[in-house]
Fold these 4 entries.
Entry 1:
Amino acid sequence: MTVNKNDEKPSEFQKITSSYRSGWVYAEYAFQYGLSIVICSLIGYWLDKVFGTNNILLIAGVILGSVGGFINLLRALNSADRQGKSK
């Protein structure tokens, strides 16, 4: 059975699609980070309206969303880094 050289090396198209796939993974992490900030901010805003506080819960929501999103971002990137090293 003969093996072609082309079977061993990825084609140019495969290289491009692989780079786009890895790029979309990181874009997803950034989207999740931003979404966690927005959701926590909206919850804080709504709670401010319900309880009549002066933007205290909005600020707490922004901080909570930022910290939670950043922790999630770090976990995801560390997991992706470990998976990349194991391949």
Entry 2:
Amino acid sequence: MIIAIDGPAGSGKSTVAKRVAERLGILYVDTGAMYRALTHKAMEKGLDLKDEAALINMAKDTEIELVLDKNNKLTVFLDGRDVSAHIRTPELTNNIRYVAPIPGVRREMVKMQRRAAREGKGAVLEGRDIGTVVFPDADKKFYLDADFQERVKRRHKELVEVGMNVDLINIKEDVERRDKSDMERKTAPLRRADDAAVIDTTKLSIEETVEKILSCL
């Protein structure tokens, strides 16, 4: 079973996808974390983030593995190294917009995502183009969304919980920028698949959202 969960930043899709995968006993694939890991590698290597050819070549020579432990904590391995603690910084978040839209990079990442999902007995994948590009033939598709201010609050809470000192106004600007970049990029923009069920999570708890999805399976 392949389950696709798409939506904008702060819609709750990462936490929800993890819990759905856990409840079903299948793999969880956080595609956003994969792009973050790739961006981290580019920054670490000091690559020009506007050099598309260099970024594509790097993507071809990169291995990313996602491991979810028994406590539902995701560990991201980049070429065998745990980079989980390094891929959520505001600077990296801002730089993803240079890496993620590149068609050649996305082709390599989609290969990696499909390979990971097909290795087991099923997978829950979340991102922005899962139901439209990565797995247009997914068994079930969901599109999560929420009120903009609620999404900003969630993003702020997420960063504070991992020990970052962040300003709410900066978070608002960051979410606005990410929405614009995700929706307006030429390759695989964020949009709802025609056959995806839409869930407004603004007033729903994580568990309520999880139950809504499970009830549709």
Entry 3:
Amino acid sequence: MNTKLRYASTIAVAATLITTLLSAEGSGVAAQPLPTQAEIVQASPEFTSQPVVQPLPAPAVEAPSDKVAQTPVDAGSLAQLVAATPTPTDLSNELACLAGAVYFEAKGETLAGQLAVGRVIVARAKSGRFPASYCGVVYQRSQFSFVRGQSMPAINKSGRAWTEAARIARIAHEGSWKSPVEGALFFHAKHVSPGWRLTRLARIDNHVFYR
């Protein structure tokens, strides 16, 4: 019996030692020291935040246009229309010829008289019976007394007379106001009698107009 007791006691002691050793080693996770905050940050994967920027499309470039946008003018009279018409600052060669003819032929006359002269030149250019441009009509040989060769005298462009002539030329060109002798192709000064066999339309200021 003593031998059995000693054997059992030995087994009990051995079991106690094994349990103690296992408790001291643990699972192998708890025995490791906890990482510091700095180590956690250092171990975290780093991401670089960079915005993906796509280049904006280049703005569309409008093709240059040789047309001038016209704003309709609601005028109750020719005087109102002339007053509301902007003074052209850079006349084309054609409008300069038209304005020059109005200036030299009807400077100082009423607006109706100036417009009548301008509309005759426009009508001639469209008729097919005369040159097809304003300059061609104005510089046609033996048509206008103010023309010298292929030029006209210098014009004082700082005065009111030129401003009116330039505005009337624009109105005549655009056809935004009809003259009292619309459709006329000829005119002469009132103090001459050429004896034309044409249809007389009317006299306006210092000119008589025919078709």
Entry 4:
Amino acid sequence: MTVTSGSKVEVRLPSRLGFEKVAMSTAASMAKLMGFSEDRIEDLKTALAEACINAMEHGNQMNASVPVSVVLSMKPNELEVKVMDNGTGMDTPAPTPDIDRKMSGEEEARGMGMFLIQALVDEAEWVSGTGTDEQSFVRLVIRMNKEN
């Protein structure tokens, strides 16, 4: 099957945990149509789930009436995903977690989402909006073959 480059799909989700699975399923279906390997699809699903949950929790403050928008754009050999919320974004990048300290229980297990996203996709970019005029978003790019 030939997938047309430039094809887009948009999904709007309520900011309620569990709805990230709708975005995961949609992204997995698109990646499968494009010919992504199962391993890359699993990477995409995990990164997208983290991004959606962060948008729901931090951007939209778990307000179910405020949607998270997910836009998936097909490009040659890659899938670009934007996850948008109504928050103001982040002032500084999250620090790299100390995995050993988290695993030993010395630090809270939470706080690894951005680190995990960056490890699973080829590009990750966080863009801050104003909260009223523009949406904040995370832009993910995953390619068919993982780049090192």
